[in-house]
Specification:
Helices cover 45% and strands 8% of the residues.
Length: 105
């Protein structure tokens, strides 16, 4: 399965994106719209409807759930923001919806 690495289209990530592409790692620059809270709020309806699932077990799952449940008041918010952007990309691509790994619909 091909893995997509989406990085914010900011100057500080430009060199990293180029390095990844040079190693044949598919990396794309994205331009997130709005702030982290707004982006996540746009995805909550699908999550609450049960249209998004997480793996039952994964080494990162406990930490991710803690961050998700504390959002937006938690100290860390980057994983939640990346999750909301992945959901946006999965559900709002031209040509219909897509499935990547454990993001299924």
């Amino acid at each position: 399965m091909n893995q997509l690495n989406a990085l914010s289209n900011r100057v500080e990530y430009y060199a990293l994106i180029q390095d990844l592409r040079g190693q044949n790692i598919h990396a794309v620059a994205i331009d997130p719209q709005g702030d982290k809270v707004m982006r996540m709020n746009q995805r909550t309806a699908r999550i609450e409807a049960g249209a998004v699932s997480l793996p039952k077990q994964a080494p990162w799952l406990g930490e991710f759930r803690r961050e998700l449940m504390a959002f937006p008041a938690g100290h860390y918010t980057d994983q939640v923001d990346a999750f909301s952007q992945a959901l946006n990309r999965a559900y709002n691509r031209e040509g219909g919806e897509h499935s990547w790994g454990t993001i299924r619909h």
